[in-house]
Design brief:
The complex is a heterodimer of chains A (284) and B (391).
Chain A lengths: L7 H28 L1 E3 L8 E3 L4 H9 L1 H32 L4 H9 L6 H12 L5 H7 L13 H25 L3 H9 L4 H30 L2 H6 L7 H11 L3 H26 L6
Antiparallel strand pairs in A: 1-2
Helix pairs in contact in A: 1-12, 2-12, 3-7, 3-9, 7-9, 8-9, 9-12, 11-12
Chain B lengths: L1 H4 L3 H9 L10 H10 L14 E5 L15 H10 L2 E5 L5 H14 L12 H9 L33 E14 L10 H4 L8 E4 L2 H11 L9 H16 L3 E5 L3 H7 L4 E5 H10 L4 E4 L5 E9 L6 H14 L2 H11 L8 H8 L13 H4 L2 E2 L6 H14 L3
Parallel strand pairs in B: 1-2, 4-5, 4-6, 8-9
Antiparallel strand pairs in B: 3-6, 3-7, 3-8
Classes of the chains: A mainly alpha (284), B alpha/beta (391).
Amino acid sequence: MKIGKARVPYLLLLPGFAFLFTFFILPILNLAQTSTQTPVKGGDTGQYEQTFAFSNYINAFVDNREQFGRSFVYATLATILALAIAYPLAYAIAFKSGKFKNILLVLVVAPFFTSFLLRTVAWKQILGEEGFIVPTLRSLHIISEQTTLTSTAFAVVAGMTYNFLPFMTLPLYASLERIDPRTIEASGDLYANGLTTFRRVTVPLSMPGVVAGTLLTFIPAAGDYVNAAILGSPNTKMIGNVIESRYFKIVDYPTAAALSFTLMAAILILVTLYIRKAGTEELV
Amino acid sequence: MATENSLSPEARSILGSRISRRAVLAGAGGLGAAGLLAACGSGGDSASSANSVRWGNWPLYLDFDSDSKTYPTLVKFTEQTGIDAKYFEDYNDNDEFFGKVQAQLKLGEDIGYDVVTPTDWMAARWLRLGYTQKFDAANVPNKVNILDSLAAPSYDPMRESSLTWQGIMSGFGWNTEKNPKGIRTLDDLFAPQNKGKIVVLTEMRDTIGVILLAQGVDLSTVTEAQFMNAVDFMAKKIADGWIRGVKGNEYAEDLTSGDATAVIGWSGDMFILASENKGKFDFAIPESGGTISGDNLMIPSTASAAGKANAEKLINYYYEPAVAAEVAAYVNYVCPVKGAQAEMEKIAPELATSEYIFPTEKTASRLHVFRSLTPTEETTWAEAFQKAQGN
């Protein structure tokens, strides 16, 4: 039997749809359902029933607005820092690295060969009392004897910046590498100096990379909890830590679900505004 | 007195020369976090066969021979009984493990274990929900070997469905270079040299228990107001920058890296840390008393008849004094089996006098058990404790 040509695209989409339905749509529906439940009266820990308590959302948000705020501040800082580090790096790899280009690219990707967790734990040692940074800074009198670097907001943001740096670097590199060198030459021919060429030609042409990179960094950073859990203190907890604790420690599934939804919605709104401003065509 | 609670110099020198239980203790933090992330991974073994038993236990909690990569007592069990014992070190957190298997327990589907090892308060929850099976008394004759002090907990007064695996003491641990006089009271703990370098346990009943005892509260009758007062005390110490973290096993890593100088910690861990760092660390039960809790061997309601019978044989085997002594010599937690001390004389006489494995009556009288909580209390108290640590 011959499959009609018109049906081929649908058949090709089928595995993807089936996967998304099972592992995205169903869990999301389940999460939505859980988020409006309340404890069974006289029931045991972890027993909830559906009462359509939409007030869960308000309570969850009001109770944890501090951690929400912190998540977005840390994620924004990490994204800006990652952009500041990754742009020159990607620029150098794309235009100035010559025969070292491939080696440099491998070095950018190399951290992925080790576990995310181990890399974060390593930061704890680097920034720890017996690492080399703290004693060096102390002997230079940059920080006092009492100041520590681990268990601080600095450590959390630094950890996130480091962990998400490749997600920023690779899209930036891809879009910088695609720039036709003749456009830059043309700019020079038209009497633009280096800075003007960079500002008027290179940056606009690399915008797709900037947009993709910032999204790939900001979105996971806002929901991240590993860096705050390993490198932070009780005063640097992010919303991911709250969700984890609600789910596993307090066994309060409805609040955990409501917080997850609120986080998703907040990220979605921010990303939509950002893409509106940056323009969707930049993503292509 | 200091010597009564601290490790004896003999114990130190012996432990120093012994092959350590876990040279990797310092890496336990990472493992803990890995477990936290792997919470969704399925544990245990889906295949239950008539001639095997599947046991889920906490990491580094059974004698292990690092040369042959086997668990000597478990190998002997298989030799004696012909039962294939499958051992899984996949308990990282009571709540997390419960979260993982709860749905199957509710539906009565096999959870992949014939023996589980939850801590007292979680054992109480399993029992309340009817997720365990009673032992067949004829299959567990060694049950009578349980220490009198552990024989009748409120959640299972006749020990019909649970037996203690190991007892855990919590108290103060410290860096002896930074705290040469040691730590016996909360005031010692919150001394200026420890500011910003104190870590306390994520286990609510241990951390708040130690604080409550210092405030003169009886843990067997603790009220919500008293509890919240102790939580406020902790929250204030966090806000004022005294406590740098509320952690699980990772506190050991912080002590070795110098990021922490004093902790509320567990006896077994501190014992190992002290031996691996030549007396740089020490542990003591607070003057006002420490807490003791236990992890319990239980058979889940979903175990098959054959699985249950094999599980009973396994539990019975570990309640033989000689076997219990062998385990205790390795894990260094409080041994719950009568007669194990006499057996310890034969294999490691220096450990037979260890207050941490075989507390004397005088020491035992200073250890307190946190009362069991109602489901409502469990939620609201846990919530307050989590909020105090920024969650």
